[in-house]
Amino acid sequence: MVSNGKYNAAKLALKLVKDGMVLGIGSGTTVEIFLNLLGERIREEGLVVYGIPTSYQSYYAAIRNGVKIIDLVEHEPELCIDGADQVDAKMNCIKGGGGAMTREKIVAKASKKVVIIVDESKLVERLSMPVPVEVLPFAYGYVERKLKEMGAEVKLRHGSGKIGPVVTDNGNFVVDCDFGEIDDRDVEEMEERVKFLTGVVESGIFPKKMIDQVIAGSSSSANFL
Ligand code: 5RP
Fold this sequence. Notes:
Strand order of the largest sheet: 3-2-1-4-7-13-14
Number of helices: 6
Distance between the termini: 25 Å
Bound molecules: ribulose-5-phosphate
Largest sheet: 7 strands, mixed
Structural class: alpha/beta
Order of helices and strands: HEHEHEEEEHEEHEEHEEEE
CATH topology of the largest domain: Rossmann fold
Helix content: 25-40%
């Protein structure tokens, strides 16, 4: 069932899209709703929109909806629209529920403006869910030990429809690292410490400095935080 909160957040974000725009396109169900709504505008208003998607999921959803696919070689997105798994009171986020955080972070950093769209159930006082970390398969054992030394409970992510670990769109593993509650003053440092481990490709910690605006949707409306 489509959450109205996701739909309302996606609908408000749609107003930010202008004809001829280059968009960074995140991943996940909220972004897919956004792309379906964008597709309606493309068909009805004849908008031309260029997009740099961050996963196979959003790549195909963008194509189905008439977005013209481009890449980061020649283009810099004006606006990046992405979802999140948790957003704290200061706008720090955890992403990577769908395992797409590496490309999402690259595209977000390459974009002039980053807008996160979430159902209001994702809003929390402090980040607390396990942090997804993308790891080179060869480095998995080493990285897992190091993350445990940092105090995390670490679980290799397994999916469904295939036995064995989830393999990301980049050919890597994902470990979900439970650090407990993360104080907003520690978010940036934690991102840097995790990233510093050799073999870590990227983490799902998105500090507030990377994010310009958050749109939170409820069952009846949506607002910029
Ligand atoms: C994927 C992500 C997604 O943006 C995040 O998981 C939110 O997904 P959804 O919109 O389906 O709740 O970070 O890696």
